[in-house]
Specification:
The complex is a heterohexamer, with three copies of chain A and three copies of chain B.
Chain A lengths: L2 H26 L7 H28 L2 E2 L3 E2 L23 H23 L5 H24 L4 H5 L7 H19 L15 H21 L6 H29 L4 H15 L8 H26 L7 H19 L17 H32 L6 H6 L1 H6 L21 H6 L2 H6 L8
Antiparallel strand pairs in A: 1-2
Helix pairs in contact in A: 1-2, 1-3, 1-7, 2-3, 2-4, 3-4, 3-6, 4-6, 4-12, 6-11, 6-12, 7-8, 7-9, 8-9, 8-10, 9-10, 9-11, 10-11, 11-12
Chain B lengths: L1 E7 L4 H11 L4 E9 L5 E5 L2 E5 L2 E10 L4 H12 L8 E6 L2 E4 L11
The complex binds adenosine-5'-diphosphate (3 copies).
Chain lengths: 443, 112, 443, 443, 112, 112
């Protein structure tokens, strides 16, 4: 065990944890004011739900002893046997629990990314069911395929450093499917759905960027040259992704937008994720550059052409960016960067691109099919979508009984009647209350 | 001249604006207000305490029109803003003594 | 000295530092708009005040050479002798100053937690005095009792891994006492006091969660299996705490609320704090589960039944959650998790629960008594509470001469007259100013 | 190579990266609502632009093999030869790329600080050009002078631990020059320019404080006693700086303000930056104390007396605070803290103060001259300043085609017409859209 | 019909609403405004510069009532909103030409 | 008494207020509104989609004055708020039936 590596993974896990609040704010700023809490709530409750699921059975399904190259068995249920000692199969220099908790944060954020597709119209109870099933039946198997010892994609030699397929394609595709199943938001295409708080979105995006260092560099599982290289290419791809989206939009629409810049940054981060531990800085520049352009095209043109309402563009950014990143890994990977990896097409190994393609396609198909089944199952139990009336009023009030900015429009403690329960009423002594006096100190 | 002041649901602004636009009316002023009346308020919950909120968000739209258009405009708005549920709102009509266009100094019906 | 451990503690200290801004936002979102700056200011100024106090004399009072098992002596005043070398009594592998600065962050956040009880009505000068005295006469002795070499609770064998008694009970009880002394806010019980910005509250809560990894895992003082275990149970208890509050409120009031979810998360974090280095994941699930329920009941039922106005529920969450956590440590502690700890009741050692109870009771009594004395002392010098008129106008304007969102309601640089001092007036050349021209580059 | 040190530098780099979003929010809250995105955008795009510049040629200019003690040569262009192995000239225990990426974050934040002077009136295209040139021709040479092997100030023995001259004086002076060239904002001195969102400013300031631990402690480049000492004095100076500004303003204007407290905290952080690795806690208290007072005077009195419109006081805080810090290093530096440093005046070496003064003066002159030349060059290509009409409307709409809080004033999806492109129009099937129905799951 | 438009302190809205509720009036529309008059503004301080802010937050409440109730309602509101300090605000009374209830199309006093 | 209601550009409030102040008028109420009319809206871009925003921010200023001052005040405001570009706004004039000062109960012109 190594204190440096353990520190590295624990702090990285904390950084990745922070990404989900980052997503919450990134998305929260983009919805209309009346739905801000609902989307933040979805992200927040995923942290809670998946944390418990993972400890109880998610981790063992993903990383437990292999069953038929498809899934882990249940021997590590309830973290049974997952202790303070290292598990050298995964990481020899850190406690097994550190690896477990680091991976947990990936399971969380992946589910959280999907919420962008469901925004502004999904019922909260249905949402809870959907996420629990999705994490268990989509994320956990996929993580096993790619990263679990014995997983079939891992054995095939598919390269996915920090989750291009497992995290981004899976969430992007599932988001698209869910958006199609839920249907468009009321008024989509005829009313404007403008972001209600772009500074919040920027804050979220920069927390994502910050946390992504833990995500990508931490995936080296040890603090050395590889982690450093992953850190550096992560930053580089994000930077150029932002610039390339910015300039593309500027040319296309005449304005360099803030929302475009942060969206492009995220696109760059997504695309570099699978490649982070296999490519050098020049490849990172190319990967990010292309990501900014194609994600912009997917969001700004493809979406409207096809007419689906993927509210916050999970597919356009994570689905498209993740697919590009996974394939780009097959182009630019180099054993000069990571001797434990493989070479890509441009380093003389065209077969790697083929393997990457298999990884991509199987993830697309698996995520699509399972998401459809899960949504169908949930819809049998409870309605997926809020009523038109609830959608009009906003999800904050109708799903959560709260107002995001209760005091803001009104500017003073006004406009509300306080329904004092009998309990409160009886316990108040009116005079003390209105004079504002408290317990007297002098007697 | 007459001022038509309507208070209606926020979600209806686009519709009302469209209806007026088709009729050829483009000048209007919009204020975000809260209001109560027959409509039931809503309950909000904060840390286990319930609050009954009965001032609900509404849109106030003000249009000054020539007297001859009043009835038609009122009808248009009433139709566009109607859902049939309690809380649809009101239209009030006020006399206007005069109007001035700041840019040109024109007054009277020329100004609106 | 170990670079991994040093990194771990320094970064953990930074994370714990960030918790206080987290508290500021968590609380800031919950108050009314007119008081948002005042509560954020209180938290911020505590960072400053306690940082200076700690360096000058707080640290030596807490951790300096023991005096009668009650307090440190003054030999380390001004950090005299607290250097770059380790002090093996506290942590053998990191510089003494790293331990010192890590502990400083605990002293800061503890005081900051109290502000939630004082919210919306305390005068700023009185607040400054109160905090300085409270840190010195409540926090510093308590820290010595529990963590200082020679402290009587430490010698008794009380287990408090990261501050259930020292941090949470002490702040929760003192907050309650201060709320009673200050009296209810004007209009409490008849007007609604709604949170003016819940996304801000969620941001604060998630920064708290993030920083809490440093708080609890960092308390292991070395980056290994114990720190990892503490990290993991911290996350687990927070997650289940949020879920249990959420479902309790959902059943009780019919709505799963965002504020409830984050409150429950904090309750779970509070409760696991004393136990973090002594219990495993299943115990963490139980501790968090119970915390979510009982803190909800304390806040949603007990408070209104008793009629005190603990504005932001410092007692209901930190007092109640901390007490439960301290006792739960006596139930679930296991030497299998931490051989340097002890077993609790469920591991065959009922005596530990008894010891924990002594720790809890003595903290309750000590914090109550001293807070009363300190408030009395401050009230002799300066009034504790703002006038009814000031309370009506809001503390931001009356205490700090500022408006939290000056431009927001007005939407344009309007509505204000600029009182130009003579100095400004004389130095302006009107023409340049209105034409917006600057220094010409061409001549 | 050391895993502890590598972790330390990578996490520190992430912390320093987060400082730039911190600056964005710190500044963003201080401008008027109509310009909030423009200033946040400037900071964000600097992260992107400088990240790419640094990888391509900025790093080699700053730290590449020395050319005449003035600049690095181009041998490390495109990170050629900057690999996963350490470069012992800079840091023997971490990958060379880790040092590179840590330094990158300094280049980013330095440029970002300047935006506070340009706020609310600079055209975005001119801004992009200015920043690219400024980073290349001001920051890169300065970094080489002070920190590059062979740089003339380094050889002279100038002490600048984390960037008093390179970061703060350079940005402060350049900001002042740019503010003078751009000219005052329209209405400056006659209309009030109030901060539109002070909680945002506080959030930004606390992220700065948090990230500054990475900035100053990380500059030790190894996790040991020196890093710890730097961490501790950083916190101390920030704390006392906030208090001293607070009390100065309280005495001067009668109110202890939130904006004052965070401004003072930043002033303290600025002043301790060059000294962080050379002074002890008592010197830090003095440095921060003085910084709070003199920066307040610069901002509150000097600025209005001289009548320049340095919108967000980059000069008053970074220019003045950085100059004080650089000189104070010459007063308080002690080899007892850092044996690789030097003693200052108060430790018997008056020559050090002289050297520091040379560093300060040459930075002032160099930054002034180059900033003038660069702005002139940019102004030849494109106008620097927005038109009066655009300034009135705000930069968010006119430069970026966006509204920071589109939904906020309007409270509902109202007030906008959606200009549906032909593409969108044709792909929508009206009925499905308004009924809110999606793909049916049952058929 | 008559419109009663009152401008008063934000902290008084609850009281005014209660008073009107007891009198049986529930329909009203509320706007957040800023106003100035005799009331002294306040001073704010930002980075050592003082600003005198003289537009202060107020509440504007609009109620349309039948003509017979006007005097009583004005009295009620004046009492409920009064503190006796400068800045309490004003009540203005305007003639209303007509009113329509959007939901039903009713007009006149029926509509309010 | 007469109510003068003016809708103009946000950037002009300071000027209008100054002009009124010089004339001796200090009492006024200000509301933030959005409006449309002849003025062209603006285009905003979010993720590659363009939106045409035609309700633009305006300021609504309400002043109740004695009848004799009306013309002069209207002129003053019109001058102070004018830029000459489309979108300068309007001034509407309404009859006021009565006014009450809440603080004192004074009514009529005494109250304003
Ligand atoms: N007498 C009134 N004066 C002013 N505004 C009113 C009045 N009555 C109702 N309103 C406004 O009309 C809105 C809708 O009124 P309400 O009585 O709830 O429903 P409905 O108009 O369908 O009967 C209210 O929220 C309020 O803003
Ligand atoms: N002539 C007026 N026209 C419109 N509103 C006014 C007028 N005079 C005062 N007001 C409104 O009434 C509020 C209170 O007026 P003020 O003169 O300060 O106190 P008071 O009403 O107690 O004499 C002002 O803030 C403003 O909103
Ligand atoms: N008929 C009207 N009724 C109410 N408000 C109007 C009317 N016409 C214009 N306005 C208000 O006046 C503002 C300016 O009007 P506009 O026609 O754009 O320019 P101008 O007044 O210079 O001709 C609008 O934004 C709107 O708020």
């Amino acid at each position: 065990m190594d204190t440096g590596d353990t520190t590295f993974i624990l702090i990285s896990a904390a950084l990745v944890m922070l990404m989900t609040p980052g997503v919450a704010l990134f998305y929260g700023g983009m919805v209309r004011k009346k739905n801000v809490l609902s989307i933040i709530m979805q992200c927040f409750i995923i942290i809670c739900l998946v944390s418990v699921q993972w400890v109880l059975f998610g981790y063992t399904l993903s990383f437990g002893p292999d069953q038929g190259h498809l899934i882990g068995d249940l021997s590590w249920i309830g973290l049974n046997g997952v202790g303070q000692q290292p598990n050298p199969n995964y990481a020899a220099t850190i406690p097994h629990q550190a690896f477990m908790v680091f991976q947990l944060m990936f399971a969380i954020i992946t589910a959280a990314l999907i919420t962008g597709s469901l925004a502004e119209r999904m019922r909260f109870p249905a949402f809870l069911g959907f996420i629990l099933l999705w994490s268990t039946f989509v994320y956990d198997p996929l993580a096993h395929w790619v990263w679990g010892v014995g997983g079939w994609l891992r054995e095939l030699g598919a390269l996915d450093f920090a989750g291009g397929t497992v995290v981004h394609i899976s969430s992007g595709i599932s988001g698209l499917v869910a958006a199609l199943v839920l249907g468009r938001r009321k008024g989509y295409g005829s009313e404007p759905f403008l972001p209600h708080h772009l500074p919040m979105t920027v804050l979220g995006a920069t927390l994502l960027w910050f946390g992504w260092f833990g995500f990508n560099a931490g995936s080296a599982l040890t603090a050395g040259g590889l982690a450093t290289s992953a850190f550096m290419v992560t930053n580089t791809a994000a930077a150029i992704g932002a610039l390339s989206w910015l300039f593309t939009e500027w040319m296309h629409r005449g304005k360099p937008t803030m929302l475009g810049a942060v969206s492009g940054g995220v696109a760059g981060l997504v695309a570099i994720t699978p490649a982070a531990g296999f490519v050098g800085p020049m490849a990172a520049l190319l990967i990010g550059l292309v990501a900014g352009v194609i994600c912009y095209l997917a969001v700004g043109i493809l979406k409207s052409r096809l007419g689906y309402d993927d509210s916050l563009d999970v597919f356009g950014i994570h689905g498209v960016g993740g697919t590009w990143g996974a394939l780009a890994t097959g182009l630019f990977a180099s054993t000069a960067v990571n001797s434990a990896g493989a070479n890509g097409l441009f380093f003389g190994n065209p077969g790697q691109l083929w393997i990457q393609l298999i990884g991509v396609i199987s993830t697309w198909i698996f995520a699509t099919a399972l998401t459809l089944v899960i949504l169908k199952a949930v819809s049998v139990v409870t309605a997926l979508r809020v009523s038109a009336e609830e959608e009009e009023q906003g999800l904050d009030i109708t799903q959560h009984g709260e107002d995001g900015y209760a005091d803001l429009v009104i500017g003073a403690p006004v406009g509300h009647d306080f329904l004092r329960g009998e309990i409160i009423a009886s316990s108040f002594k009116k005079p003390a209350e209105s004079s504002g006096k408290g317990v007297s100190l002098s007697d | 001249m007459t001022k038509i002041e309507c208070i209606f649901r926020p979600g209806k602004l686009e519709d009302v604006k469209d209806a007026l636009g088709k009729f050829g009316i483009h000048g209007m002023t919009v204020t975000q207000v809260i209001g109560c009346g027959l409509q039931k308020g809503r309950t909000e919950v904060y840390r286990g305490a319930e609050y009954s909120i009965n001032l609900l968000p509404k849109i106030k739209l003000e249009i000054v029109v020539g007297d001859k258009d009043v009835d038609q405009v009122v009808n248009l708005i009433a139709q566009a803003a109607r859902t049939g549920e309690i809380g649809d709102g009101k239209i009030f009509i006020y006399p206007v003594a005069n109007a001035t266009r700041i840019r040109t100094g024109e007054t009277g019906e020329m100004a609106i």
